[in-house]
From TrEMBL:
The gene is murA. Belongs to the EPSP synthase family. MurA subfamily. Cell wall formation. Adds enolpyruvyl to UDP-N-acetylglucosamine. PANTHER family: UDP-N-ACETYLGLUCOSAMINE 1-CARBOXYVINYLTRANSFERASE. InterPro entries: Enolpyruvate_Tfrase_dom, Enolpyruvate_Tfrase_sf, MurA_subfamily, RNA3'P_cycl/enolpyr_Trfase_a/b, UDP_GlcNAc_COvinyl_MurA. Residues 7-406 form the Enolpyruvate transferase domain. Phosphoenolpyruvate binds at residues 22-23. This is UDP-N-acetylglucosamine 1-carboxyvinyltransferase. One of its GO terms (molecular function) is UDP-N-acetylglucosamine 1-carboxyvinyltransferase activity.
Length: 419
């Protein structure tokens, strides 16, 4: 079993390069199926979720070829519409194959996707949208069969702006007959990236980044070369680590426009922030100010994926902070581990009160999800003594070279195998 051994007390300072966005790369990799051609994707992060997605694409008959952060997917050889239970369970993003396969072959056989234990994650909104486009859906013994003799454009109203459901609907509608309008869409930058990629393949989609998206279906798409946007969640994680440890950091290849709510909260804690071209600079104050209200919500609100790193950072603030999680009901689970390190956090329902007490104590802890896990690394960086963190496979689902990058920023962290 692999674990991180962290010796706290070092500031996170220096420069690092932000990688491509996990949550853009995964749906875009899935949607290469729609092109029926060769797509060259650059800035793909080298994370285990990407490896899982490439494995699925290969098993479907596509050919993937990876060279560093560039992945070429040739989907001409697609030969099946079925994904095994085991592969579906490897990650949440396996669900993106649903819209892509349906759009390309008119059928898909999947099961419930896996992913982190951060709350119940139904796919009813995905299935609702696909049904509106003309798919029939049958579910027996965990197998979900979707088929459509013809997908037709439709008017689709989401009851909640689900990121994944918006993306699956865009994919299925891209090659449907006629005009689709998606209402109450999620507005995350990763959705705009999916739109831009599909448009580069010949699709006709507009409105991503707003509540209403229009898709004019195209009979066939073609291949393209495309660069994935920088990861705003990875950016926010390194900024939180620097702020929490009293450091000074410059992120290269970042996109500050995607981080407005995040930078705003860091400014409220007293951090000095500078933005120049694709660089974001942060200098932490001597002591962070608490946040009286940090509430997660769909973009452009504060992202749920950064709730745990920020909550962890707030254990160092001077006073009491209040955090409210509105997206996933189990996203405070990691606070149990933080409490073992001496953090004073009270959780009631979807609200957490964080008492900024300063010093945490290193100890043996367990990551149970991706962002909670990254937060426990930040806790280890702030703590006195040694922290041993297990369950790091969750972290490696979404952060490329996490321990190396932190070491480059001054952290004393090493990865060990076994025991
Ligand atoms: C690969 C990817 O992009 N993952 C992100 C995506 O996940 P994901 O696409 O799964 O998140 P959604 O936006 O769909 O989920 C948000 C909320 O809607 C609910 N819901 C969703 C779909 C559905 O059919 N029915 C339903 O009730 C979920 O339970 C949750 O409470 O957006 C989340 C919210 O920003 C992020 O935390 C994830 O990092
Ligand atoms: C919850 C996350 O990812 P996924 O949707 O892939 O589980 C995340 O990136 O924090």
């Amino acid at each position: 079993m692999e674990s991180y051994h962290i010796r706290g007390g070092h500031k996170i300072s220096g420069e690092c390069c932000v990688k491509g966005a996990k949550n853009a790369a995964l749906p875009i990799l899935a949607s290469t199926i729609l092109s029926g051609a060769e797509c060259q994707l650059s800035n793909i992060p080298e994370i285990t979720d990407v490896c899982s997605m490439k494995k699925i694409l290969d098993e479907l008959g596509c050919k993937t070829d990876t060279s560093g952060e560039t992945v070429i997917v040739d989907s001409r050889g697609l030969m099946t519409d079925t994904i095994s239970l085991e592969r579906m369970r490897e990650m949440r993003s396996s669900v993106f194959l649903l819209g892509a396969l349906l759009g390309r072959c008119g059928s898909a056989v999947i099961s419930q996707p896996g992913g982190c234990n951060i709350g119940s994650r139904p796919i009813d909104l995905h299935l609702y949208a696909l049904k509106k486009l003309g798919a029939e859906i049958f579910e027996t013994e965990g197998v979900i069969l979707c088929k459509a003799s013809k997908l037709r454009g439709a008017d689709i109203h989401f009851s909640f702006p689900s990121v994944g459901a918006t993306e699956n609907a865009i994919m299925a509608a891209a090659t449907a007959e006629g005009h689709t309008v998606l209402h109450n869409c999620a507005m995350e930058p990763e959705i705009t990236d999916l739109q831009d990629f599909l448009n580069a393949c010949g699709a006709q989609i507009s409105g991503a980044g707003t509540k209403t998206i229009h898709i004019w279906g195209r009979q066939a798409l073609h291949g393209c070369s495309y660069r994935i946007i920088p990861d705003r969640i990875e950016s926010g994680t390194y900024l939180a680590a620097a702020a929490a440890t009293g450091g000074q950091i410059t992120l290269q290849h970042a996109q500050a426009a995607h981080l407005e709510s995040i930078l705003q909260k860091l400014i409220e804690t007293g951090c000095e922030i500078g933005v120049k071209e694709d660089k974001i600079y942060l200098k932490a104050p001597k002591r962070l100010k608490p946040l009286s209200r940090l509430v997660t919500g769909p973009y452009p609100a504060f992202p749920t994926d950064l709730q745990s790193p920020f909550l962890t950072m707030l254990t160092q603030a001077e006073g009491k902070s209040a955090v409210e999680e509105t997206i996933f009901e189990n996203r405070f689970a990691f606070t149990e581990e933080l409490r073992k390190m001496g953090a004073q956090i009270t959780v009631e329902g979807n609200r957490a009160a964080v008492e900024g007490i300063g010093g945490l104590q290193g100890c043996h802890i367990q990551a149970t999800d991706l962002r909670g896990g990254a937060s426990l690394v930040i806790a280890g960086l702030m703590a006195q003594g040694e922290t041993i963190l297990e369950g790091i496979e969750h972290i490696e689902r979404g952060y490329a070279d996490f321990s190396q990058t932190l070491r480059g920023l001054g952290a004393d962290i090493r990865k060990t195998h076994g025991g």
